[in-house]
Amino acid sequence: MNLFTFNTVEIILLVSLGLFLIIQIIYYFSLYNQLHAHNKTANNGDLIYETELPPISVIISARNESENLQKYLPSVLEQDYPEFEVIVINDGSTDESEDVLSAFEEKYTNLYHTFTPDGARYISRKKLALTLGIKASKHNWLVFTEADCRPASKDWLKLMARNFSPRTDIVLGYSGYEQENGWFQRKVAFSNLFMSMRYLGFALINKTYMGIGRNMAYRKELFFKNKGFSSHLNLQRGDDDLFINQVATPFNTRVETSPGAIIRMEPAYGFKSWKEEKVSYLATSHYYHGMQRYLLGFETTSRLLLLAITIATIAFGIIDKQWVVLGIAILAYILRYIMQVIIINQTATDFEEKKYYFTLPIFDVTEPLDVLQFKLFRKIRGKADYMKR
98 in a domain, yes or no? Predict the structure, then answer.
């Protein structure tokens, strides 16, 4: 048999293999490599940053978070920054949050706290809490994080603020889980890293479509100019991703990638809490404007099709004893794996995350399967579960 004579099925498989491999290469180098490229440019001193440090209002919504407030709030209050205030909104807590906040206010003069009315019915509680915090803030630049989070360094606010240029309205930062051992924690950390490579990567190519409320900043005037959360008051979530999707333009958003600007959050100890977070974001993603979520869906589809075609090509190569076909399929898989290892682990290193080698092929498949599972959860539960409460 001529090694370079292929039948029709083999030709179709090889052409499809090449096509989807090229699609994956385009996504990895044009989107997923953006964070590492940006960080490298910043480290080389090729980015222009602001030298003035305007006053900042840090806003945190907390509901029954007394333990996390005790544990993490001091790391926010003790930032090395010339002028800033921290506003914590006690969102109907029934634990010791009020006592914790009152005690901290005696120690820290830059801490203020307020509360949400018990009878609020016309807006999601978190959106109401954040709106109250924004109205109470003294300064134009608002920085957002959450009660179960801590800045990786005392320079977090400085690093975010160096992006506050005259034309900038939004600054997005990276947030990652506290590192823990264990299969589930590794899986969750990978999912978070990969999602960050997607939404922050799009922001770096001037196609911002969402933000995460654990680590982002925007102007107070931007909030009121766009009537706050009024366009999605009926949704429980959307205070971060939908709002940024609404107000971001190709030229008003910057991304901070320094390790010192990372926000670390409590590890996900159980599938249920992780699932709730993922399902909530999927519930709001349906309302995103722009082509980004469709482009990401196409990437996921092309990834799974590439894997399926690779398996089929290997099988046909073995059955037909067509070793060239078998070799091409294996080579294509190895090339993509090497590309993944380099790009994903470079980004993981930039954000001081653990690297992925042997687990990467597994997470490469389980990540889209998990998303599919979460989409099914959302469908089963229906829209009403994500309305205001």
Answer: yes
